[in-house]
Amino acid sequence: NQFRSPIAAACFARKYEALGWQSNWLVSSAGTWAQPGNPALPSAIQAAYRLGLSLAEHRSAPISARLVSIQDLILVMEAGQKEALRAEFSIFRKRILLLSEVVDDRPEDIPDPVAHPDIPAHEIAGQIKDMIERGFYRICAQALKSQSVSVP
């Protein structure tokens, strides 16, 4: 929760704010195996800066049952994250999707720059930004659709 998800959250929040929409939507970032309180990685801060974003205030946070329960949509970067979260929070499984599924209708992992140092961080950040911008309205529609799903 120190690179991909903070960049995705910042991209989404910027687009949302630029449209001037007023609502009670919460845009946040959490990690499946995150340690709480860590800042974004230096490579994430630099890549975000190149995109006109700031991650200066970001602090990592682990995903929790409480957080999952209050979110209408949880977008993950890897199929393994989706499987793990759906297994742990099965009652909310319909809210947990891959970013690529929502945006491009196909399951595709977004590489983690820590696990793939051969891929430049700015390329991964650019991929995330492009997906958020291209799929912004689909993401919003999916979140609204998830609001209408009743959970026992």
Write out key terms for the chains shown.
2 strands, single chain, globular, two-stranded parallel ribbon, Rossmann fold, mainly alpha, 152 residues
Walk me through the structure.
By secondary structure, this protein is mainly alpha-helical. It has six helices and two strands; from the N terminus they run H-H-H-E-H-E-H-H. Strands 1-2 form a two-stranded parallel ribbon. Helix 4 links the parallel strand 1 and strand 2. The mean pLDDT is 92.
CATH fold label: Rossmann fold
CATH homology superfamily name:
Response regulator
Uncertain runs with pLDDT below 50, 5 residues or more? Answer: none
Give the strand content.
under 5%
Based on Cα principal axes, name the global outline: globular
Radius of gyration: 15 Å
Question: Which structural class is indicated by helix and strand composition?
Answer: mainly alpha
Counted beta strands:
2
Secondary-structure arrangement, i.e. CATH architecture? 3-Layer(aba) Sandwich
Distance between the termini: 30 Å
Output mean pLDDT.
Answer: 92
> CATH first level: which class?
Alpha Beta
